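Could you help me review a protein record that somebody else here produced? This is what I was given.
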Amino acid sequence: MKEGSIVPRRGNVPKREILPDPMYNSVLVTKLINSVMLDGKKGVAQKVVYDAFDIIKEKTGKEPLDAFTEAMNNIMPSLEVKARRVGGATYQVPMEVRPERRQTLGLRWLTGYARKRSEKTMKERLAGEIMDACNNTGAAVKKREDTHKMAESNKAFAHFRW
């Protein structure tokens, strides 16, 4: 490690300010662009996201930002399970998800499952996944349901929370 580089052992690392995107003036859209971005190619990612939003507007007639916000609300989990070792046994302990992490997980699942879709281009895949999530269907929404189901079935271990 270089001389003078500061690695915090304790305490929090300051969050970098994320600027709202130029087209929709939304921080959430910027986060989506950053999530879609590969190899630091932000221009390509912006084009993919904006084209996907155009497809959404064309197909649903809704305002793309509203559709995206609704989709995110349908994807973001409120509960998750975390592994916790107690006396040699590992328990899946249900936990509430912090708002920041809810958003991060929602975006991660949205882009992850959009990439796995069968449409030809990424803009079509992303638009499809957002529209599905808007209608409470699609892989990302299923992931949230599964996560909630896991938390529900492990409710008995909730007293192991720390």
In short: The radius of gyration is 19 Å.
